[in-house]
Design a protein that fits this description.
The complex is a heterodimer.
Chain A: H1 3-13, H2 17-39, H3 42-58, H4 69-87, H5 105-121, H6 123-133, H7 139-146, H8 150-170
Helix pairs in contact in A: 1-2, 2-3, 2-4, 3-4, 4-7, 5-8, 6-8, 7-8
Chain B: H1 4-16, H2 22-34, H3 47-60, H4 66-76, E1 84-89, H5 91-94, H6 118-130, E2 144-148, E3 155-160, E4 176-182, E5 186-192, E6 198-207, E7 213-222, E8 227-236, H7 259-270, E9 275-279, E10 282-295, E11 298-306, E12 320-323, E13 329-331, E14 347-348, E15 351-352, E16 355-356, E17 358-361, E18 364-366, E19 373-382, E20 386-387, E21 393-394, E22 397-407, E23 410-412, H8 421-426
Parallel strand pairs in B: 10-23
Antiparallel strand pairs in B: 1-8, 2-3, 3-4, 4-5, 5-6, 6-7, 7-8, 9-10, 10-11, 11-17, 12-19, 13-18, 14-17, 15-16, 19-22, 20-21
Helix pairs in contact in B: 4-6
The chains are: A mainly alpha, B alpha+beta.
Chain lengths: ~170, ~425
């Protein structure tokens, strides 16, 4: 737990504009990528990232410093996504806008294929994998975010990897 | 050619470089500054568009719920066909051998090229026409009885047993099967079978203000096996259709407490007992009722008690709101979380100063904050211990009855119980 994080949280709680801006900037990209991987839809990901950050900002007073601020923000994002996922209208189309990053087309195909595969995995398996690989959280942090035992996280990570291997082993490459 | 692992790692590496649009960050900052949630996506056929559509309707017409209006329209024009239904479904191809459907009264005003959608048509048709009890059969709910609550124009409840229709998997009675129309935006119902398979159906409703067409898009999902069905339909209603999302109305000046305030309040105020009831020799003490807006389209209720044994989740006995100072109470949607449904909306045990409280999360829904509320809480006791094969003793929890409390000791929470409200109490 870094003192800087506590100070940042305190600043956000005071509604200090600079702290709020820093808070948004620090976690926006990570939360957006997390949502993108789970929704496979850029617009939904933007909406959910916005909702998550505003939610986190408004509830920052309940952050007690027992975990890292990053873990706490991802926990808020996790709940935002879970709530959305329960209510959402299933979409048939895929609408991911990652082509603007300037990457070679082969890589874009890879990323899009992975996004589709993550969607196929379902949130229960995809979330720990995304939090580990994209958001660089540890197993313990993922366990806190998802409120499940660390052993379960490891098990889901293993299963998710296995299914991805199976998916890509069959179709692409 | 990449190996699967290399392919996956390469994909993750690529995804880690994806950046959100800078404009979205600015919008978030702007939303924060204005303390309004400006949706990033505008113009899309999403919630914002629907809200605008509903808003347009609401301005032009007498505000009432859509279903009530539809039912009223149906009542007024009962002598003539009022609805024309056109279905476009892929499902018929998936289930070409579905059994023939029972005849539904007055189906002449409906056209059903697809059997699958008939359940929706039947529900709507019957509800609009009679506003009373109805029953129907459908592929996914054969044998179900569906009761339309005329006093509550947004709510259906389903009871019954699932037949053997669904591939022989769901042969047992479900635990829960509820249906809600929320503000005419979508019909959403879900059920869970004894195998733990979570089934959910969502039918979205869009109203086109120009054509006065109401569009349904429907999807059935079965999470455990990934089975999916998609159907869509266009239903033409009479032009005088009003739609308004019912929102909870709070008393002016009511302040919802933050989780932190409520945590402090728990120690100081909720922690003091309010009243005690004895049921079958088991003493149950009520400490307070917390009302929170963390359920869709209403206010949820949590009842904090102490005494007796913990609940037996599988028994089906749950807390209920019996009355709330003359305000309407509705059965809420049951929200199992992803994963373990046993953790959902039943109760848990915050411990403070060595004392264990039971938080019973009622499934009932309030639409205004009451000044007084009557709740019915199940009471349990430890049964006789039994010895299991491994030598462990097990104390079953026996339901002994309900304790009914009427209290004005109400607390209003910002409703983040899912995240850390009561969770903090356990820390």
């Amino acid at each position: 737990m870094l003192n800087g994080e506590i100070e940042l949280a305190q600043g956000v709680a005071r509604n200090d504009d600079a702290c709020v801006a820093a808070f948004f900037k620090a976690y926006h990209a990570g939360v957006y990528r997390y949502m993108l991987c789970l929704t496979n839809n850029a617009e939904d990901a933007e909406d959910l990232a916005q909702d998550s950050l505003l939610q986190a900002k408004s509830r920052i007073r309940s952050f007690r410093g027992e975990s890292g601020l990053k873990t706490w923000v991802h926990r808020v994002a996790y709940h935002t996504f879970t709530h959305w996922h329960r209510k959402r209208k299933p979409r048939g189309e895929l609408n991911v806008s990652i082509a603007a990053t300037g990457e070679p087309f082969a890589q874009i195909d890879t990323a899009q294929a992975l996004l589709e595969a993550l969607t196929k995995l379902g949130p229960a398996l995809a979330q720990p994998l995304v939090l580990l690989e994209i958001n660089d959280l540890s197993v313990e942090e993922i366990a806190r975010v998802m409120d499940i035992p660390a052993g379960t996280v490891k098990s889901r990570l293993s299963t998710a990897r296995q299914r991805l291997r199976h998916l890509f082993g069959e179709s692409s490459c | 050619m990449l190996k699967p692992d290399e392919f996956i790692d390469s994909g993750f590496a690529m995804l880690k470089t994806v950046q959100p649009r800078q404009a979205t960050l600015e919008l978030i900052a702007a939303a924060h500054r204005q303390e309004t949630r400006t949706k990033i996506r505008k113009g899309a056929l999403g919630l914002a568009a629907f809200t605008a559509v509903v808003g347009a309707f609401s301005i032009a017409m007498k505000p009432t719920s859509a279903l009530a209006a539809l039912r009223e329209s149906a009542r007024l024009t009962a002598a003539q066909p009022i609805l024309h239904v056109h279905f476009d479904s892929q499902d018929v191809l998936r289930n070409p051998t579905s059994p023939p459907w029972p005849q539904v009264p007055r189906t002449d005003i409906w056209r059903f090229p697809d059997r699958y959608m008939r359940k929706h048509g039947t529900i709507l048709f019957e509800a609009f026409k009679t506003g009373k009890t109805l029953s129907y059969d459908s592929r996914f709910s054969e044998g179900f009885r569906s009761t339309y609550d005329a006093a509550n124009d947004r709510f259906w409840r389903f009871d019954g047993t699932i037949g053997e229709e669904i591939a022989g998997v769901h042969q047992n009675p479900p635990r829960v099967h509820d249906s809600i129309i929320r503000g005419a935006r979508y019909i959403d119902y879900e059920w869970q079978d004894v195998d733990g398979m979570h089934n959910r159906t969502t039918s979205n409703i869009y109203i086109d203000p120009k054509t006065k067409l109401v569009r349904f898009s429907d999807s059935d999902r079965t999470a455990a096996n990934g089975d999916k069905n998609h159907s869509s339909a266009v239903v033409e209603f009479p032009s005088k259709v009003a739609a308004e999302r019912e929102v909870p109305r709070f008393p002016k000046g009511l302040k919802f407490r933050t989780s932190e305030e409520l945590l402090n309040g728990f120690n100081r105020q909720i922690g003091l007992p309010d009243q005690t009831k004895v049921v079958a020799g088991i003493r149950t003490t009520l400490y307070g009722v917390v009302i929170h807006p963390n359920v869709p389209d209403g206010l949820g209720v949590d009842v904090i008690t102490q005494g007796g044994a913990g609940p037996d989740f599988g028994s089906g006995h749950r807390s209920e709101v019996v009355g709330s100072a003359g305000l309407p109470v509705k059965r809420s949607e049951w929200y199992p979380p992803l994963g373990d449904p046993a953790k959902a909306r039943f109760g848990f045990f915050p411990t403070i100063s060595g004392r264990k409280y039971i938080v019973n999360q009622s499934d009932d829904l309030l639409f205004r904050a009451p000044s007084r509320i009557t709740v019915r809480v199940p009471v349990w006791r430890l049964g006789r211990s039994t010895i299991e094969r491994e030598g462990k003793s097990v104390h079953p929890h026996e339901f002994v009855g309900y304790a009914t409390f009427t209290t004005s000791k109400l607390f209003y929470s910002i409703g983040d119980s899912e995240m850390n409200f009561y969770g903090r109490l356990r820390d």
